[in-house]
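Re: weekly structure request thread

Next one in the queue (322 aa):
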Amino acid sequence: MVCRMAVNVGMCFDRSLPAPFVVEVAEQLEAHNVDQLWVIEDCFYTAGVSLAATALARTDRLTVGLGILPAVARNPAITAMELATLANLAPGRLLAGIGHGVQSWMEQMGARTPSPLTTLDEVITAVRRLLSGDTVTLDGVEVSLRDVTLDAPPTPPPPVLAGVRGPRSLELAGRVADGVVLAEGAGPTYVAGAVAQAGTPEPFRVSAFTALAIHDDASTARRIMAPFVVGLLDGTNPAVEAHPHAAEIHERFDDRGVDGIADMPADWWIELGAIGTFGDAVRHAEALADAGADDVSFFPGPTVELAREDLDHVARLAAALR
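Done, posted below.
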């Protein structure tokens, strides 16, 4: 089975997984010729930069993505230093995602910005310029730099992707970033729409994260993942609202709760994740690629035991999608 559009296949390192487990995951992914590992940074779990450094040090070919560094959690000069160091340690093997961050978390640590859009614009612009070797002076709303130059800017500089979801943020990404990271329920319809909202710039890298649940009986996998889908139905997730049957999904949940989600038609699940049989997972990834995704990375189960099982599924998917 061959994907009609070329796509890089990866696995996400769930925030719930213990930090030392990243070594096993990275080494197994490389051994099975999987393209990517995305390490997840959520407050207040494991930190992305240290996980990425470990994964890069234990592999020779694996691309490692940072998903997603909150823009205001670090000074952009320090962010650029961290990214430059990683990129110099492993040239061509780093993808850097930077996003708004969850605003409630930013407030918890005294870092909430009054203007997340403006702040992300300034941070991504400054970081990209620093990584390109520029001397940067900027007196912005959130970013204040004076004659800052990296001593060793990487060659090539790593792509800096905006981890965003809404239309205004996607439009910003199209102007200031090298691409986007799309998370939490991103389906083919949403991916295509996100590229359009970004203004279809060229080149523009699209990295999509997606849920993974494979079972010989598709209905079993869907029932397992029905609560996950319910968790996305709060009206604030543009990816789910872009689903061609979004209104009907809400109606099903209102009428029958989780059961109404679990027995949705099979083709509706293709827009929600790699959920069902192995063939369903392949079709989901193919649809994402055809919609414009360059990278598709799968979220495993949240425990070490489940993640080990899903490592095998990801390896099979990588082989099937080549």
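The first helix runs from residue 21 to 31. The chain has a mean pLDDT of 95.
Next request, please.
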